[in-house]
Amino acid sequence: MQLRIRLSTLAAGVIACCATATAVLPAQAFAAPAADGPIRIATVTPTAATAGASKPAGPSGPGRATARSEDLAAPAVPISPALLSETLMGEPAPARPDSLAAQSRSAALAGAAEQSCTPADFAARSGADLVAFLKSSTTDCVSSLFGNGSADPGIFKQARMLPVATAFKDLAAGYTGDNSTGILQLVLFLRVGYYIQSYYPDATGPYDATLTSGVKAGLDAFFAGARWHDVTENNGEVLREVLTLTDSANIQGAYLSVYQRVLDDFDNSYNALPKMVGAVNSVLRFPLWRGNTNPAFVSALGADPRLVTSLANFAVNHKDLLSGPNAVLDTNAGNDLARMAGTSATVEAVAKPLVKRVLDAAPLLTADAPLYVHTAFQATVYDNGQCSYYGICDLPAKLTAVVLPHQLVCDNRTIQTQALSAAELATVCASLRNEDAFFHNVVKDNGPIPNQYDKTVTLGVFANKTDYTTYSWAIFGNSTDNGGQTVMDPTDPNNRAANVMYQKAWNNGDPARVWNLNHEYTHYLDGIYDMKGSFATQTSVPDIWWVEGLAEYMSYSYRATTDTDAMAQAAKHTYKLSTVFQNTYGNSDSTRVYAWGYLAVRYMLEKHPADVQAMLGRFRVGDYTGGYAVYNGLGTSYDADFDAWLTACAAGACYAAGPTALFDTSVNGATVSATERSVQTGPGRITAWHWTFGDGTSSDERNPSHTYAAAGTYTVALTATDDTGRTATTPASVTVTAAPVTLPNCTEQRADAMGRNCSRTGRAATAGNTDYLYVYLPAGTSTLKVTTSGGTGTAHLYYNPGTWASPSAFTASSTGAGTTQSLTVTNPTAGYRYLSLYAVTDFSGVTVSTQF
User: Fold this and answer.
1) CATH of domain 16-35+740-852
2) Distance (Å, rounded) from C-alpha 4 to C-alpha 480?
3) How far apart are CA 582 and CA 579, in angstroms?
């Protein structure tokens, strides 16, 4: 087996026919196209406590981290519906590095290199002096106050906020569409003030209507201007924070028309502008979510519910976002709509049919399903009285019936799966049954811990990572930025434990390809037989080396599989045993948690089993301080022996009996070459090698080479088989670049005309402008591939079959960083087709190629 596991970020608690060859080039193609101007943005009832639980927004991050498919999560109790409901509101993942923002930030930092940035620097200033200091500060400096603004109780007193609000109003009246005046720093300061006042009211003192009026005057001036409509990255950076400020000041009800316009005027051109996407999401994530706890917002919404309709239209009309990096925009629209439905009878009357419309437009088991699940879940939390009308009463049961229809009761385990066959279900059941005996032999327990409930467990097995992410949280209450999780609370007699996981697309050595099956099941067994109390109690001392190390050790040793990652770490001698004993989720990265946890547990079981039993004896009665004292009291006494044991482990002592698949890779452009170096431990010899390359291709050569059709990161996996039929699989990630294609220069007379299998060099444009091109496709063209490369700057590539392509008019695009772009259009109709390179920054020396 080949776990490559990393520590996940834990949530709290817990996707025609035919023009002729004589067609004439459209007339507009003979005129130099004008550069486009800016686009103008024409089953739970909430309690009072949960309804007002959210706080003003904190610092704006770069977006949610993209989870790796191998991530694991710590065991946890199910996330409560109220908390899970709030954590659903997320950020879009950044589609590319933001070069404009990076350049702007670098320039700002260079210009302010000598300026100090500490709480004292702000506390020492007031009035005009504070305003001037803010304008000359970097946005990073001001944002740092989110984390330490409470250090000096004087910074955010209302008397010091008021001059900043006045200065904001003065700059807002002449807003230039960017941060050239320092307006963003003023907005950030006001946001931090509201944030600190919410969490540390004693540090700021009270805020009253005077400040609210001052901030509102600035917001009114900002939205009265024209430049806040600019669809640019420069405006998006400022607009995001200004829109969030309407929520921080809790005056959402005054800006319904602003929010509506942002939603109504969104189109797919924004996808090339992450800051503008962030601005749109700031409306969805903050005022339209938190505003539902504000009576003034609810009253204004009841009086003018057009915003409710805009939300529904956004959700239905932009379902295409669900398959890309900005999917959260669409699901957040569904989240907000369903929450609004429960704010008042007046709003519910308008929202109720719209919620149903959204649900009907997003069937389960389709690419649109995330919209259904988010909208349905929020409706059960905030408008559950209408669950029959929506068809979502007992939503977890409904989702289970549709998504996990195959079930097998395996003793005290219920295995609910999406795609396992009857034979695969039997394989999983047998693996779990046999692991029970193996586990008891390892930990030598005396039976279940008294008063630990969860004597039955459900295993939810999804068909793939996408469906796991889409459905599992709404069924099991788990976090999904991981490769599996155990959710249980053995202290609750009404709780039913769950191991949630999914199948990998390729054979990784887990039974029936169920990723992390035995790791997660070990967590369940450990919580019943070794660790008394809830998970919070179990981890009240540094014992993660045991919690995760045992799950790793059991997963590998039970399946007689080598932990190649742990062996590689052993060779590095990175940590002493006494250091690993202090592991917590907070002080350890994934390597220290999992690979080193495995090594520590294996060493202690092999060399010091009496210490393990002494520790478990205390854990089993809930004495975690006493259990911690067993191994913490060892100090460094085992460190030298552990270090020697690591040497032996890396040299081969940690190989499992039978084959261990090992290999090296080298990459040259789009080609990866693999060199097999597998090891057979004990009798037998390796007789077969099977490779999968992560793109649907495979090889049975011993040392193959493979050329990929497209650049990207792929998983190469080797399965080694010995002469007794035993197998072992190990994966590795490889990143390849596109193979260079040398094409002749296009021979068409016009410099903006492309041709078949040719290129144009030296393309250039200044920031904000567009370099237009076109190509004629003959009848029978099956595929058009357009690529750009070389030169400097950042240029986005767009394609349009009917008119000049631009960021606001395209059907295909490539919007990565720099000048290397590629798009492919399949089955285009014959005729003139249009291309463009939009200058995100100045670019020059770019080569454009067309192949068909």
Assistant:
1) 2.60.120.380
2) 17
3) 5
What is the Cα Rg of the chain in Å? Answer: 30
Could you tell me the pLDDT band of residue 203, with boundaries at 50, 70 and 90?
confident
pLDDT at 41: 21
Residue with tokens 């040392």: 703
Residue identified by tokens 């595929």 is: 783
- Which amino acid is present at 512? A
Strand partners, 834: 774, 800
Q: Angle of helix 327-340 relative to helix 345-360, nearest 10 degrees? A: 140
Alpha-carbon gap, residue 774 to 803, rounded angstroms? 10
Residue 6 has pLDDT above 90, yes or no: no
Number of H helices, E strands in the chain: 34, 22
Query: Amino acid identity, residue 196?
Result: I
Residue 95 pLDDT greater than 80, yes or no: no
pLDDT at 93 over 60: no
Give the torsion sign (CA, 90, 390, 318, 307).
Answer: negative
SS3 390: helix
**How sure is the predictor about 55, in pLDDT bands with cuts at 50, 70 and 90?**
confident
Confidence at residue 709, expressed as pLDDT on a 0 to 100 scale: 79
Cross-strand partners of 789: 847
Q: Is the pLDDT of residue 30 over 80?
A: no
What is the mean pLDDT of the segment spanning 632-637?
Answer: 97
Measure CA 511 to chain center: 28
96 or 121, greater pLDDT? 121
Query: In the sheet where 485-487 sits, what is the strand order?
Result: 406-410, 413-417, 457-462, 497-502, 485-487
At the fourth CATH level, which superfamily is domain 394-536? Collagenase ColT, N-terminal domain (3.40.30.160)
Q: How far apart are CA 131 and CA 721, in angstroms?
A: 70
C-beta separation of 184 from 240 below 8 A: no
Secondary structure element (H or E) that encloses residue 699, with its range: strand 698-699
Tokens (6 digits) for 267: 């189109």
Q: Kindly list the domain boundaries of the chain, sorted by start residue.
A: 16-35+740-852, 104-249, 394-536, 539-654, 658-736
Q: How far apart are CA 147 and CA 366, in angstroms?
A: 41
Provide the mean pLDDT of the chain.
87
Beta bridge partners of 690: 719
Q: What is the pLDDT of residue 181?
A: 96
Lowest mean pLDDT among 37-51, 371-385, 423-437, 567-581: 37-51
Calpha distance 367→1 (Å, rounded): 31
- Which helix (H) or strand (E) segment holds residue 224: the answer is helix 209-224
Distance CA 64, CA 556 (A): 31
**Maximum CA pair distance of the chain?**
88
Q: Is the pLDDT of residue 747 over 80?
A: yes
Q: Which residues contact 7 (CB under 8 A, 6 or more apart)?
A: 71, 72, 585, 588, 589, 590, 593, 594
Closest by Cα among 515, 524, 519 to 555: 519
What is the CB neighbour count within 10 angstroms for residue 513? 20
Does the domain at residues 539-654 carry the CATH identifier 3.40.50.2300? no
pLDDT in tens, 288-319: 999 999 999 999 999 999 999 999 999 999 99
Topology of the domain comprising 658-736: Immunoglobulin-like (2.60.40)
Picking from 74, 81, 77, 84, the residue whose alpha carbon sits closest to that of residue 488 is 77
